[in-house]
Amino acid sequence: MTQFTGKVWLLGDDIDTDIIIPTEYLALPGVEDMKKYAFSPLREELAGQIEEGDIIVAGKNFGCGSSREQAPEIIKHLGVRCVIAKSFARIFFRNAINNGLLLIENQELRDHVAEGDVITVTMGEKILAGGREYPIASLPENLMDILNAGGLVKAMQARNGV
């Protein structure tokens, strides 16, 4: 099983795509230009503090709002290893998988961790945080194939020998 460890960034409920990347920054040339404004309506400094391998832990309905493919792409480009939330907006969930961003649903973790905690995720098994284990479900094999390839486009290219 794949296992990784990361520092927690704690967010609340209903983090919508306008919070992840405000509309006024969508006209910038690319994701690298946009990512410094990620989460700016909520916490202006957050994008500059996230480091490679960090983990966002949030409440319910993460990624709600307009369907904005840039939202999960920007989170991935910030270096976030995965987002763990109580629930995800369905369109965001699929956009994230298609962009190669791992999402994990867990109802309990958000209420038992603090920002800056270090947690360990064992894919398809559990999250270890503060000496406590939180079980997690496995994603279907077809979604794991997309994630492991780095996103849907890369998965299709590999499948078709491109």
Can you walk me through this structure?
By secondary structure, the protein is an alpha/beta fold. The chain has one domain: Aconitase, domain 4, CATH 3.20.19.10. Helix content is 28%, strand content 20%. It contains seven helices and seven strands, in the order E-H-H-H-E-H-E-H-E-E-E-E-H-H. It has a seven-stranded mixed β-sheet, covered by helices on one side. Helix 5 links the parallel strand 3 and strand 4. Helix 6 packs across helix 7. The longest helix has 9 residues. The two termini are 28 Å apart. The model has no long low-confidence stretch (mean pLDDT 95).
State the gist of this model.
This protein has about 160 residues and is α/β, with parallel strands linked by helices.
Radius of gyration: 15 Å
Which regions have little confidence, pLDDT < 50, spanning 5+ residues? none
Spatial shape: globular
State the distance separating the first and last CA atoms.
28 Å
Largest sheet: 7 strands, mixed
